[in-house]
Amino acid sequence: MGLRSLSCLCLALALSQGAPPHNGPMEDDHTPSPHHEGFQDRCEGIEFDAITPDEKGITFFFKGDRLWKGFHGLSEPLNSSFHEMVDHHHPGHVDAAFRMHHEGRPEEHDHIFFFKDDKVFSYYNYTLEEGFPKDIQELFPGVPTYLDAAVECPKGECVTDSVLFFKGDEIYHFDIKTKALKRKHWAHLPNCTAAYRWLERYYCFHEHQFTKFHPVTGSVVGTYPKDARKYFMKCPKFDHGSNDTERERCSHAHLDAITVDDLGKAYAFRGRFYMRLDTQRDGWHAFPIATLWKEVTSGLDSVFSYEGKLYIIKGDQVYIYKTGATYTLIEGYPKTLKEELGIDGPVDAAFVCGADSTVHVIQGRNMRDIDLLATPRTVVKESRLPFPKIDSALCGSDGVRVFVGSEYFHYETPMLLAYSRIRPEPHKTSLDMLGCDH
Ligand SMILES: *[C@@H]1O[C@H](CO)[C@@H](O)[C@H](O)[C@H]1NC(C)=O
Ligand SMILES: *[C@@H]1O[C@H](CO)[C@@H](O)[C@H](O)[C@H]1NC(C)=O
Ligand SMILES: *[C@@H]1O[C@H](CO)[C@@H](O)[C@H](O)[C@H]1NC(C)=O
Ligand SMILES: *[C@@H]1O[C@H](CO)[C@@H](O)[C@H](O)[C@H]1NC(C)=O
């Protein structure tokens, strides 16, 4: 499968929420400001009331009448963004919050729902929707008042589009369409004061820690709890000492490789980092390649996807991974390029278009087409490209993009790439593909 609509990647841009978690050079923006009453430094270790992303993928952290936007930076008063949550007699607070995932109802999809006592508030674009607040019972019958936490759970991750509500040690699965409510008791999970879905993963926050859990079974795999300051905010004493991936993402250096896997996950690779291109709803982030593909770690030459598999080419080796929730190296790999594709390295770029079985391999000025169904593999066609060196290439439903330095060029088909005399106008990769503002 190709990239369904690459153009949608290019829309939701300029949404950068500052640095991604667990990396980056230390900045002074955590320094407590002594003039602020009610100031709280989240690097001291805070038990949050609620955590939710907004419709642009910026994560909000709530505590009392303070609000943090994004993974770094100072807090601001809750009432400067959501003044209806604060009344004249009480300092504001939020019991729970989540962002609605409901594709079938655009009037609710991507709205942020806040819960306070027995009321629910729906915001979009920082504006309280008409008719709100409402009683929780009216919208979410059976869900208790004075909640502790809430989190969206879209179909595919839960059985149906759902919301998980938390109160004490009880969890309520609420089906958005049928309004069916199921109560669960996950004794091993700590009582969550905030719950958060990020990049398809689910986190229960308690004290200044968090525990990752499965949204259907509640199972916890791995060593938890972990300290939230190490992963979800930039705190000097908890810095991993890694590089600034934000700077990494927006640098104008060339991309080593770019692909969309058969589940629709889009990746760009540079140095030892990968960037997801299809998750701008959760913000833009770069991660070490080794976290998903530990056998390769850095300096990839090209990556392409075919028939549920991800092919990574590095030097004269080909690594083939089975695509799934995680990537599993197929037994017997890596193999040499000669063995797998019948060619010698190095390879600059490689791509497959849709369900076609042809992999187009770019080496210098040459594009070599190899049929992945034929054995032994042989070059069935060779063409001369109008570029001396291409860094990476991607084929989607709307054509081929070839990446050269900090720019890319768009062709409607691989044929046109091979034979067109006119070079299309260049696009800036950082601006149009990676969500940067320059
Ligand atoms: C927010 O609340 C503070 C005090 O709690 C008040 O001084 C300030 O004027 C309020 N701001 C808005 C925009 O309502
Ligand atoms: C969001 O609100 C601002 C003002 O608060 C307004 O200018 C803008 O048009 C709104 N955007 C949408 C998409 O409704
Ligand atoms: C969790 O919630 C239950 C029910 O409200 C309560 O009895 C229990 O003490 C809580 N556990 C902790 C560790 O707070
Ligand atoms: C940061 O990046 C540089 C250059 O890419 C690399 O040499 C260095 O080892 C990296 N540092 C860490 C802590 O990963």
Question: Which parts are unreliable, with pLDDT below 50 for 5 consecutive residues or more?
Answer: 1-37
- Termini, distance in Å? 30 Å
Radius of gyration (CA) equals 24 Å
CATH superfamily of the largest domain: Hemopexin-like domain
Instruction: Please give the count of helices.
Output: 8
Gross morphology: elongated
- Percentage of residues in helical conformation: under 10%
State the secondary-structure class.
mainly beta
Q: The CATH topology of the largest domain is what?
A: Hemopexin
Tell me which ligands are bound: 2-acetamido-2-deoxy-beta-D-glucopyranose
User: Would you identify the CATH architecture of the largest domain?
Assistant: 4 Propeller
Tally of strands: 34
What is the level 1 CATH name of the largest domain?
Mainly Beta
Whole-number mean pLDDT: 85
For the biggest sheet, the summary is: 5 strands, antiparallel
Whole-number count of domains:
2
Strand content: 35-45%
Glycosylation sites: 191
Protein name: Hemopexin
GO molecular function: heme transmembrane transporter activity; metal ion binding
Binding site for heme: 240, 285
